[in-house]
Design goal:
688 residues; mainly alpha
Length: 688
């Protein structure tokens, strides 16, 4: 990090650790003063909800409190009615945790935290209270109070003491994204689109867009951000999403025209150079934009029944170039308005993507179900061992199994993470043993207690501040705080400590084994699943004849592309890297765009197009991981031939542009389309 940066930025990790420790000690002292039954829960909560960014801490804290209240209420409803049937009680709690985990994994926004907390909070409150069901309401209320206290302390310290807003982080990511997109646009306009480096750049931009969307979800909880700025960022993000498939389409058209573009269309070659030069500048003047739009309109060819394949490609390219100009100018204007603090809703936009794209995210119901099943089985095994052995301290095992399965379920393979959690737990057990039996007996007041805890917990906070070590810091902080079980009086017992430590390790080991058996998968498996899901979505779009929200379709496909990018990076030698995900996205968008042309098509053209779409749907469903069948190209060309005969110019143009996009997306290496005489027997339902 540069030495000329402010001191607080250079040492942000140390500042975060000091703030988090101060908030934790404040929560502990207040909990002791209020005589809460488990004051250490307030301290642990601070470390669970704290993040270096104030907005993220506030959103996490809000949802944790809401989830805790729901979980506590569910515990009060479940436990008294089933306490006399421990097996049934264990089953109900396990099912509740599994259901809540399933729901949390379907929502990748901070809201998903509500369901996760509602799930394992029942395990944390219910299992230890099985022997004293009469006091369950008081225990649940106390647990909500302890967690609320920790949340309040963490949020106050984070937002008041040297707050670090999420806004600069989002702004820096957006700046970098736009700069990278600018370089990609130049490469595409120069005819470098199909190169591997360009493909990797597009994948990275998709992954970065998903990350920006995730960070932006915390803006509503950041006090330094007003609603106007957050709304402007959402609009800008929609434009960012639209840019990737557009650049892919432009790059494909330029590649299809090849050397002929410069030799037979010198004016078009000059236009591409002018566009590349304009993209490289940071100016916001309207005059160059108007000049580029006029040049594009002047070169647009008329598509009649005798139009050549090259003329169709040129028309398609010019339409996309006009969209690139509009989109790029809008991004510049929006970025400038947000940076100046102006209301982005007053910016005149030439390109208006629908609002649905930003809100649509990929949901994997299958993986969510298997995650829930793994948690259910792990909890039931721990409960069976606890009940069968009559182990007084066995309740900790199903508690830790529920927490581990829930907290790490979003990973492709949670088992290694759970094993690491168990390993750090053993480190925590060692640290706690030193504190309980060597340090705490010499502590006489709360001031000395704080001094004694500082060395360990400041290290935990420093680890938590760095993404590479955050998991280790969180595990150490949570397990150490829980096992220390700080109270107003010292009452350590070695047998109880040993039993609790053993129960933690057993619970985590069981969670790791069951997760490994039920749902551990690798990056390549998830990548293949995402690609297969994409093709099912494309098949559905073809079957529905493109009906639906175009922006929502683009949003879900681009979201999956962003999820694919880091996984493809992790498997550099896989054949999946040869799959043109953006090409398939363009196919889907062209299917949706054909809606406009369908209303004016002649019956025979419409039937040819529907036949092609039906064949397309079958191909996507039956070739989920491989290339498209060559015979599909024949049906696309037949539909193109029929579209060429349309009498109305706008209908013919819309149909041809959409069909060319589908053809190029699926068969980029196919030779130029030649007019064919359709065989009536190939069209189902067409009379000879």
């Amino acid at each position: 990090m540069s030495s000329n940066q402010p001191f607080l930025v250079r040492h942000a990790g140390i500042v975060f650790s000091l703030k988090t420790f101060a908030a934790a000690m404040l929560a502990l002292v207040i909990a002791l003063w209020m005589d809460l039954p488990r004051p250490y829960w307030a301290m642990a909560t601070v470390y669970v909800v704290s993040t270096p960014l104030a907005g993220a801490t506030s959103s996490k804290a809000f949802y944790r409190l809401l989830g805790t209240v729901i979980g506590a209420s569910a515990t009060v409803a479940i436990l008294p009615n089933l306490v006399d049937a421990p097996e049934l009680l264990s089953l109900v709690i396990a099912l509740w945790v599994g259901l809540c985990l399933y729901l949390s994994l379907l929502d990748s926004t901070p809201r998903g935290y509500v369901f996760m907390l509602a799930g394992y909070t029942v395990a944390f409150i219910g299992f230890p209270q099985v022997s004293e069901p009469a006091s369950i309401f008081d225990t649940a209320l106390a647990r909500v109070e302890e967690i609320a206290l920790g949340i309040i302390c963490a949020s106050l310290v984070s937002s008041i003491v040297l707050p670090r807003s999420v806004a600069p982080t989002v702004a820096a990511r957006v700046d970098k994204w736009l700069s990278d997109a600018q370089r990609l646009s130049q490469s595409v306009l120069a005819g470098l689109g199909p190169e591997q480096a360009s493909l990797n750049q597009r994948l990275q931009l998709a992954a970065d867009a998903v990350e920006i969307d995730t960070l932006s979800s915390h803006l509503a909880y950041d006090r330094s951000i007003d609603v106007i700025a957050a709304r402007g960022l959402r609009t800008l993000h929609l434009h960012m999403l639209a840019l990737l498939p557009l650049l892919a389409s432009i790059g494909d058209s330029i590649a299809a025209l090849g050397d002929r573009l410069r030799t037979t269309q010198p004016a078009l070659g000059g236009l591409l150079d002018d566009l590349a030069n304009w993209v490289a500048t940071d100016g916001h003047e309207q005059q160059p934009v108007d000049r580029l739009r006029a040049a594009i309109a002047a070169q647009k060819p008329k598509l009649d029944a005798n139009a050549s394949w090259d003329r169709i490609l040129v028309a398609s390219l010019l339409i996309r170039l006009r969209e690139l100009v509009d989109l790029s100018q809008d991004c510049r204007a929006l970025h400038l308005a947000i940076a100046a603090g102006h209301d982005a809703s007053h910016v005149e936009l030439a390109f208006r993507p629908e609002a649905g794209a930003a809100r649509v995210r990929h949901r994997d119901h299958g993986m969510a179900v298997w995650s829930g099943v793994g948690a259910i089985i792990a909890i039931l095994i721990c409960c069976g061992f606890w009940i069968g052995a009559g182990w007084p301290d066995g309740a900790t095992a199903p508690m830790m199994a529920a927490a581990a399965c829930s907290l790490l379920a979003a990973q492709d393979d949670p088992a290694p993470g759970i094993r690491d959690f168990a390993a750090w737990s053993i480190v925590s057990i060692t640290i706690v043993a030193v504190y309980l039996f060597a340090v705490l007996p010499m502590v006489s007041n709360v001031e000395i207690l704080i001094v004694a805890l500082a060395p360990s917990f400041l290290v935990f906070g420093a680890l938590l501040a760095r993404p590479a070590t955050a998991f280790a810091g969180l595990a150490l902080a949570i397990i150490t705080t829980t096992l220390l079980a700080l109270q107003s009086t010292y009452s350590a017992d070695f047998a109880a400590f040993a039993n609790s430590g053993l129960s933690i390790v057993i619970g985590l080991a069981t969670a790791a084994v069951m997760t490994r058996l039920t749902r551990s998968v690798g990056a390549e498996w998830i990548a293949r699943r995402l690609i297969r899901t994409n093709r099912m979505t494309l098949a559905s779009a073809a079957e529905r004849r493109g009906r639906g929200d175009r922006a929502a379709f683009a949003g879900i496909m681009l979201n999956r592309l962003g999820l694919l990018a880091p996984r493809l990076a992790a498997i550099p030698d896989s054949d999946l890297r040869d799959v043109d995900i953006l090409g398939e996205l363009r196919v889907g968008l062209n299917i949706v765009d054909l809606r406009r042309a369908r209303h004016g098509l002649a019956p025979r053209t419409l039937l040819a197009m529907d036949e092609m779409l039906d064949r397309l749907a079958v191909a996507f469903r039956s070739h989920a991981g491989g290339p498209m069948p060559p015979e599909l190209l024949t049906y696309i060309d037949l539909a193109l031939t029929e579209a060429m005969t349309e009498s109305r110019d706008y209908v013919r143009e819309d149909a041809l542009i959409g069909l060319v996009g589908i053809r190029r997306g699926l068969f980029p290496d196919a030779p130029a389309c030649q007019a064919k005489t359709p065989d009536p027997s190939t069209f189902r339902g067409v009379a000879a």
